[in-house]
Predict the structure.
Amino acid sequence: MTDIAPLAASTRAAFGDPGVHAVVRAGRTVHAVSLGQWIGEEQVPELLCHTGVAGWSPTALAPTRAAVTCARCLRRIGGQSSAAQQLPLFTTDR
């Protein structure tokens, strides 16, 4: 069995400073992070909005200092959402 403690520790360290958020793989949405239980007693950063990440592993999250843009994360942290600025998918004019 492989010891996962070093992987968990390095991932926690990457997101340990205040103001560090996450993007999922090559995504453009910036998420807030919190620590969550991973395997056994190990804790790693997870998306605050709990959006699923297919094939999840701690390395799927990339640290960033960019501002949080995820509307769900912003609601959880009490920030202003830019959702009002989002373009509609469909127009109501016909």
Residues 5-85 form one domain. The chain is about 20% helix and 20% strand. The radius of gyration is 16 Å.
